[in-house]
Design brief:
This protein is an alpha/beta fold. It has 12 helices and 12 strands. InterPro entries: Inosine/uridine_hydrolase_dom, IUNH, Ribo_hydro-like.
Length: about 300
């Protein structure tokens, strides 16, 4: 099985991504690293532990990571994920928030050394932990099999979700993203260009009736679905983070191509923008594999069937 570390800022779609990764039975989840993002780090740790308890996988270790971006002040998305980050879906579930002593970036370094050429990092939050890891140990870029990142908006300029030009995960710590993109790591970028095509509708959710995840998915996504309808006129939940896991499970869900991609860190209107040199104007070596299209229907079926069968 593929050895993976999930790096999360557990809000609603992170939670769904964790469930997909677990219930696929195809991934050896070595650990989950947490990072400040959708909600503050303490919320992220608690939410991650709650999701693991829901899935009866308390054996998966959870590591505390960066509690703020490298430079900027923290940014959170309570309007999208609710006051607790999970839309109130697991408010009555109690968990211990104790974690192993290892700091998440150090854990990533340790596992990259231990599993040279075998480790996949699934990054579905701001890239602060990975940036700290590669700054401390740059050589891990040659030891990691692949880094699959949910982040950015590439060809759909002007259709960001935190600003017209930026996606939340990159915008929340653009300096960290820039470090990661220039690190030499083998990166596959799962951007809004494809994730916004994977909408989980209420009709999809109803197919989970009778399963142990129905109540959680229905309740947790309500605030998310309402936000999407008010903001984008689309009644559903974009499966940003679950698609990122899905691509590790089934790479053929997407078509990809490598380009040189950089991150804007100083623009007044464009901070956090992921800029892709489609025409090779800068004449630089490609550093990021971009997901250009997605079989959204097949992915939604994969997601529903995986949760339904468990």
């Amino acid at each position: 099985m593929e050895k993976v570390i999930l790096d999360v800022d557990t809000g609603i779609d992170d939670a769904l991504a964790i469930l997909l990764a677990i219930e696929s039975k195809q991934l050896n989840i070595l650990g989950i690293t947490t990072v400040n993002g959708n909600v503050p780090l303490d919320y992220v740790v608690k939410n991650t532990k709650k999701v693991l308890k829901l899935a009866d996988r308390n054996d998966i270790p959870v590591y505390r990571g960066a509690n703020r971006p490298l430079i900027r002040e923290s940014l959170h998305e309570f309007a999208v994920h609710g006051d607790d980050g999970l839309g109130g879906a697991l408010v009555n579930l109690t968990v211990s928030t104790e974690c192993p002593d290892s700091f998440a970036p150090d854990y990533i370094i340790q596992q990259a050394r231990k599993h040279t050429g075998e480790l996949t990092l699934i990054m579905v939050g701001p890239l602060t932990n990975l940036a700290l890891a590669v700054r401390k140990e740059p050589e891990i870029a040659n030891k990691i099999k692949q880094v699959v990142v949910m982040g950015g908006v590439v060809s759909e300029g002007g259709k960001g979700n935190i600003s017209p030009t930026a996606e939340f995960n990159i915008y929340a710590d653009a300096e960290a993203a820039k470090i990661v993109f220039h690190s030499g790591l083998p990166i596959k970028l799962v951007s809004l260009d494809v994730t916004m095509k994977t909408f989980l509708t209420i009709e999809d959710i109803e197919k989970l009736q009778g399963t142990k995840y129905y109540d959680f998915v229905l309740t947790s996504t309500e605030i998310y679905r309402n936000f999407s309808y008010e903001k984008y006129g689309q009644n559903g939940s974009a499966l940003h983070d679950p698609l990122t896991v899905g691509i590790v499970l089934e790479p053929s869900l997407v078509t990809t191509r490598k380009y040189f991609v950089d991150v804007e860190t100083s623009g007044e209107l464009t901070y956090g923008q992921t800029i892709c040199d489609y025409r090779n104007i800068w004449n630089k070596e490609p550093n990021v594999e971009i997901c250009e299209s997605v079989d959204a229907e097949r992915f939604i079926s994969l997601f529903i069937n995986t949760l339904k069968d468990n």
